[in-house]
Amino acid sequence: MYVERALKLEVKGFVLKEASGDYLVNSLYKIMAGEYSAL
């Protein structure tokens, strides 16, 4: 449900709250570089 909503909003990244802090930081760098990130 959340993923479908995010895709409709054309988000660049989606990180679950269970993700590690390192993954969150790496995802932010990817998004800032114009890439996509999901977990």
Task: Give the strand order of the largest sheet, numbering strands 1, 2, ... along the chain.
Answer: 1-2
Head-to-tail CA distance between termini: 14 Å
Helix-strand makeup class: mainly alpha
Shape: flat
Helix content: 40-55%
Number of strand segments: 2
Our count of helices gives 2
Mean pLDDT: 85
The main β sheet shows up as: 2 strands, parallel
Low-confidence stretches: none
- Determine the strand fraction and express it as a percent band: 5-15%
Q: Which sequence of SSEs, written as H and E, runs from N to C?
A: HEHE
Please indicate the count of domains: 1
Overall radius of gyration: 10 Å
Outline of the structure:
The chain is built from two helices and two strands.
Structure report:
With 39 residues, the protein is mostly helical. The protein has helices spanning 2-8, 21-32, and strands at 13-14, 37-38. Strands 1-2 form a two-stranded parallel ribbon. The two termini are 14 Å apart. The model has no long low-confidence stretch (mean pLDDT 85).
